[in-house]
Specification:
- The complex is a heterodimer of chains A (114) and B (116).
- Chain A is an all-beta fold.
- Helix content of chain A is 0%, strand content 56%.
- Chain A is globular, with a radius of gyration of 13 Å.
- The mean pLDDT of chain A is 93.
- Chain B is built from no helices and 11 strands.
- In chain B, the strands form 2 sheets. In chain B, strands 2, 4, 5, 6, 9, 10 and 11 form a 7-stranded mixed beta sheet that branches. A 4-stranded antiparallel beta sheet of chain B has the order 1-3-8-7, with no helix packed on it.
- Classes of the chains: A mainly beta (114), B mainly beta (116).
Chain lengths: 114, 116
Amino acid sequence: KNQVEQSPQSLIILEGKNCTLQCNYTVSPFSNLRWYKQDTGRGPVSLTIMTFSENTKSNGRYTATLDADTKQSSLHITASQLSDSASYICVVSPNAGNNRKLIWGLGTSLAVNP
Amino acid sequence: DTGVSQDPRHKITKRGQNVTFRCDPISEHNRLYWYRQTLGQGPEFLTYFQNEAQLEKSRLLSDRFSAERPKGSFSTLEIQRTEQGDSAMYLCASSLGQGALQEKLFFGSGTQLSVL
């Protein structure tokens, strides 16, 4: 069964600290892996999107890594800010250009405290 | 702001009433999607348009749901005879479908529907 599992389920860190969120997937076939940030009551916002041939991709203070062999991805947040408090969701697309069959993780809820 | 607008942001209705939501995608995007998201879950695909053609509907989309995208621009999602189980966040997303491996989705802020 196609699944995306994320850990930890929730995380609390102090402002200015770094953190790393994990994503393991068992999805086949595999086209790309995405990380989204979702604030409470808002739609998801794309952070990164990587195909199987990409190992790392950065977007400002966000850096995602992908190991297609072990089917693992991580999202590293550097120098966290209060505005980083949100849910971070890992999403795997089995097929290129097909946004109807996305496999969504349940997200990691991040709280950044002053 | 992703460039995708949804209206209204919140809707409270009584069971049995009809509701309609609107989505304005990014203007040059040819693909438009509707998703439904409940608390603690990922978005579930409902339906998909390429330009004005509705190409796919999920089995989640009962006959009480209808969606349109006239002229390939904005889209509306109507729910008739609402039920309490329809309470959810309804998300619209758009993309520039070019068959690329990395087709990025841009989501709107959603319409939060509460059926009393």
